[in-house]
Amino acid sequence: MGGHVVEFLFEQGEISKGTFRGGSHLKIMDSRGVQGIEADILDHQSLHEAMEGADIVYNLASPTPDHGAELMRANTEGVLNLLDVATEMGVKTLIHLSTLDVCGFEAKMIQDGAPPRPRGEYQESKAEAERLLLEFSRRSALPRIIIVRSARGVGSRDNTLTIPLLRMVKSGRVVLPSSGSMSFAHPLDIARAMYCAALSSALTGSIFQMKSFDSTPEDLARGLAASLGLRAEVRTEGVFSKSRLPSYTASQLRARLTLGIQNGWAQIGFRPEISMQATCEEVAKWHRKEPWAIEEN
């Protein structure tokens, strides 16, 4: 996700530097001439250099659902570090990326103003980050805080859904945990939503929810196969077959969260631009360029 945001903001002329963790792959930042600063959201001191001279901070720092105990620390201690340093350095706007998953998997259709109903470590940690940010926004006008909740991400370089789907498509057999339409978000639309929110006049404490398109996971898999010029059998799990997706991703597909009409999009001037077909074509183009990226270790 971070790489896509860097690429998008660079194209808008809106980025001068970005943070990375030790051992991260810096090809995208290096290729765009973006200054890379090693930092850790859990290391208060390391954030000072990263925010020096910055008017807007885009926060995407969060472990993935399989990181266990790291989740809550990053989304509590880390978020508090971010707020402290942003205040000290005079940052004007902080855009925080969250997830529709905070609404809980019991919900199916999510509308404007949906309250958090988290279940499980990942959802609880993301909901707690939102709570801390909103609590801060009620006490202080700066930095202005805006939260963007994204639907399930899908696009190039995503290793929790897209790459497993590509592996199954190339094997000729795709097994998915369930069927039914749900909302997906392409990383470039996520970047666009965050950028639009940053430049808007939205009040501090605002929450905007976004998606790119609705699709069934089966249609998404078939679209990827067609874009690659491959044929693959697509089916749902049976008694003797199990999906090769990570467990949390499988839970997301079973939940089938669908984002309803979002009246708030007009307020920030956002409209999704990337369809399912465009997503499949983008992933196929990336795969042809970097086929080694989906190889299993």
How much of the polypeptide forms β-strand, as a percent range?
15-25%
Low-confidence stretches: none
pLDDT averaged over residues: 90
Specify the helix fraction band. Answer: 40-55%
Shape: globular
Our measurement of the CA-to-CA distance between the termini, rounded to an integer number of angstroms, reads 21 Å
CATH architecture: 3-Layer(aba) Sandwich
CATH fold category name: Rossmann fold
- Structural Rg: 19 Å
Number of helices: 12
The CATH superfamily name is: NAD(P)-binding Rossmann-like Domain
Classified by CATH, the class is Alpha Beta
Number of strands: 13
Derived structural class: alpha/beta
Tally of discrete structural domains: 1
- List the strand order in the largest sheet: 3-4-6-10
Element-by-element helix/strand order: HEHEHEHHEEHEEHEEHEEHEHEHH
Largest sheet: 4 strands, parallel
List the helices and strands and how they pair.
Elements: H1 2-11, E1 17-20, H2 27-32, E2 35-38, H3 46-51, E3 56-59, H4 70-75, H5 77-88, E4 93-99, E5 109-110, H6 121-139, E6 144-150, E7 152-153, H7 162-171, E8 173-176, E9 182-185, H8 187-199, E10 206-210, E11 213-215, H9 217-228, E12 233-236, H10 247-255, E13 258-259, H11 265-268, H12 276-289
Parallel strand pairs: 1-2, 3-4, 4-6, 5-13, 6-10, 7-9, 8-12
Antiparallel strand pairs: 9-11
